[in-house]
Design a protein that fits this description.
about 190 residues, about 80% helix, about 0% strand
Length: about 190
């Protein structure tokens, strides 16, 4: 189990770096409807970040699995979040092969899964208290806030996702090493 948490933390930190890189690439040469070499680079980096996020969510699941405060709601949040990011990743691959943005309706459905799953997962993190509270709050607000922030700054969503997954990655890695301390510790049950 410790290995899955470690890999989840490392994947989250890597996803964070990849989201920052994708924001830089997008700012250097904004992605258009028709793809060019920069568009392919942007989409390949984003795809790698989404895969990192899926591994990170598996790390969150490994940390919380079997805990009484995790339960069915936590499993549902994990499954929905992974399914949503997987749908977005597959659509990204299809778009790269076709050379243009495609299947927007299905991508929106994937985003809906991510939204619902992230909110559930964020609430469970807040309830379980195994990770710092801000990881739960960021899971709840980063994805929907990113869409709104994109209207102001075109790469804002990627930067918010970088903040989210970087925070989760560091928290998973520190929790795995026992540095989680009192903030992340689960209270003892009276029994």
């Amino acid at each position: 189990m410790s290995s899955t948490i470690k890999w989840g933390g490392l994947a989250a930190v890597a996803a964070s770096a990849l989201f920052i890189l994708s924001a830089i690439v997008n700012q250097a040469s904004p992605v258009e409807q028709r793809y060019d070499s920069t568009s392919y680079l942007y989409h390949a980096v984003s795809l790698a970040a989404y895969i990192g996020v899926i591994v990170a969510v598996l790390g969150i699941h490994a940390l919380h699995k079997g805990r009484p405060r995790y339960g069915r709601l936590g499993i549902a949040g994990t499954v929905l979040t992974i399914a949503g990011y997987a749908v977005i990743a597959v659509i990204r691959i299809i778009s790269m092969v076709q050379g243009q943005s495609s299947l927007l309706t299905i991508r929106i459905a994937g985003a809906g899964l991510v939204l619902i799953g992230s909110v559930l997962l964020g609430v469970i993190i807040l309830r379980a208290r195994l990770l710092p509270w801000w990881c739960g709050v960021l899971l709840i607000v980063a994805f929907p806030l990113g869409d709104v922030a994109n209207e102001i700054f075109s790469s804002a969503e990627n930067l918010l996702l970088a903040l989210l997954w970087g925070s989760v990655g560091v928290a998973l890695l520190s929790r795995r090493q026992g540095a989680g301390g009192g903030v992340a510790a689960e209270p003892a049950s009276a029994g």
